[in-house]
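Work Package 3 (structural annotation) set out to generate three-dimensional models for the target panel prioritized at the project kickoff. During this period the team completed the workflow that converts sequence records into discrete structure tokens, so that structures can be stored uniformly alongside our sequence database. As a representative example, we reproduce one entry of 84 residues exactly as it appears in the project archive.
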Amino acid sequence: MDNLVDADAAYPGVELLAGGPDRGMIVATSYGHWTAGEEPYIVSVRFRLEELDEQLAAGRQLLLPSSRSSEVAGAGMGAHEAGR
């Protein structure tokens, strides 16, 4: 994801879920200007390390080019938006 505004944004909180059916799932939550012309909003991405391993084994590139940096991709792996 690429924050479209050069401003204070994208300090992700990362949590490893410890119990229940989501045990072992990683949740990363951040905020920013993700859509041109819209107010900033919060995005959470949920994934398991096994999903990343499968993507790598399939030859999928996980680092996406960005105008400012490279970021780990989470789209297509249980991405959820909140606060919109």
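Strands lie at 13-16, 26-32, 41-47, 63-64, 71-72, 79-82.
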